[in-house]
Automatic annotation (TrEMBL):
Keyword Nucleotidyltransferase included in the entry's annotation: no
GO molecular function: Delta4-3-oxosteroid 5beta-reductase activity
Record-annotated active site: Y58 (proton donor)
Domain of life of the native organism: Eukaryota
NADP-dependent oxidoreductase domain segment(s): 21-303
CDD domains documented for this protein: AKR_AKR1D1-3
Species this chain originates from: Otolemur garnettii
GO cellular component entries: cytosol
Source lineage: Eukaryota, Metazoa, Chordata, Craniata, Vertebrata
Name of the protein described by the UniProt record: Aldo-keto reductase family 1 member D1
InterPro entries: AKR, AKR1D1, Aldo/ket_reductase_CS, NAD(P)_OxRdtase_dom_sf, NADP_OxRdtase_dom
Keywords carried by this UniProt record: NADP, Oxidoreductase
Length: 326
């Protein structure tokens, strides 16, 4: 795979393509300053990123949309150069909610279509506008939904030209097979967005997805924030790893650049989140070196099979995806 800063798209099974590195825009609405996401997206586009990963849940899609529009008006990019991934949240998995939810995202982004729209997680929560629905005792309100029916509603959105490609996130093998084996399947998932980094290399899920021509998009590719409410903080920070630091010194690269390079050499798309202009630039500088086969094997050997993002608050959900091996 001959990837470069100017040309780093890889093919998807539906004939479209996806840039192998994207900017993650996850943020906590209450603790992120207004405008910082828009500024970061503009910096990223100037640096060479063409893939922006967002979600209605992040409450900043309006800023992403503004930044994209500004760069198009400047003549820096055309709409077709940009690859935007949006996400269908857990409270909108009922088929009749799918299209209105996507249309709301398009309106907020000021776009006519998104390039990729994915089911954010296989666990449905009570339908409605409350994104984190709980009862009066603070107990999560779960919902039972037919994921195949959700998928059919997404297929209809693709037929209507609202989205180019369809995918999923946080699905295990069984949940992927549910969609892949659906009678009358029109479009198969092009990707599965999951946690993926040297401490959690996902070898079995990666192999399964490759066999089915499904691209793995790795979130938290640099490890993750240390928020104990949804993250396993008992795992040591990835970027402090001795081997990764040694390789960074060898190539005159940051540890983060080594980690991202490792995944893209395996064909895994990476979406590091950063609102720091210097880091946004640094994370993109991974096309001017490559790791040897021995180094790739050594990094694979760091796999601890432990995920940072465990989502423990939903571990009793009937569709919690992480109880199974992969």
């Amino acid at each position: 795979m001959n990837l470069s800063a100017a040309n780093h798209r890889i093919p998807l099974s539906d004939g479209n393509s996806i840039p192998i590195i994207g900017l993650g825009t996850f943020s906590k609405p209450n603790s992120t300053h207004k405008g910082i996401c828009a500024t970061s997206v503009k910096v990223a586009i100037d640096v060479g990123y063409r893939h922006i990963d967002g979600a209605y849940l992040y409450r900043n899609e309006h800023e992403v949309g503004e930044a994209i529009q500004e760069k198009i008006e400047e003549g820096k990019v055309r709409r077709e150069d940009i690859f935007y991934c949006g996400k269908l949240w857990a409270t909108n998995l009922e088929p009749e909610r799918v299209r209105p939810t996507l249309e709301r995202t398009l309106k907020v982004l000021q776009l006519e279509y998104v390039d990729l729209y994915i089911i954010e997680m296989p666990m449905a929560l009570k339908p409605g506008d409350e994104v984190y629905p709980k009862d009066e005792n603070g107990k999560w309100l779960y919902h039972n939904v037919n994921l195949c029916a959700t998928w059919e509603a997404l297929e209809a959105c693709k037929d209507a030209g609202l989205v180019k490609s369809l995918g999923v996130s946080n699905f295990n093998r069984r949940q992927l097979e549910l969609i892949l084996n659906k009678p009358g399947l029109k479009y198969k998932p092009v990707c599965n967005q999951v946690e993926c980094h040297p401490y959690f290399t996902q070898p079995k899920l990666l192999k399964f997805c490759q066999q089915h021509n499904i691209v793995i998009v790795g979130y938290s590719p640099l490890g993750t924030c240390r928020d104990p409410s949804w993250v396993n903080i008992s795992v040591p920070p990835l970027l402090k790893d001795k081997l990764l630091n040694t390789l960074g010194e060898k190539y005159n690269k940051t540890t983060a650049q080594i980690v991202l390079r490792f995944n893209i050499q395996r064909g895994v798309v990476v979406i590091p989140k950063s609102f720091n202009p210097e880091r946004i630039k640094e994370n993109f500088q991974i096309f001017d070196f490559s790791l040897t086969e021995e180094e790739m094997k050594a990094i694979e050997g760091l796999n601890k099979n432990i995920r940072f993002v465990e989502l423990p608050m939903w571990s009793d959900h009937p569709e919690y995806p992480f109880h199974e091996e992969y």
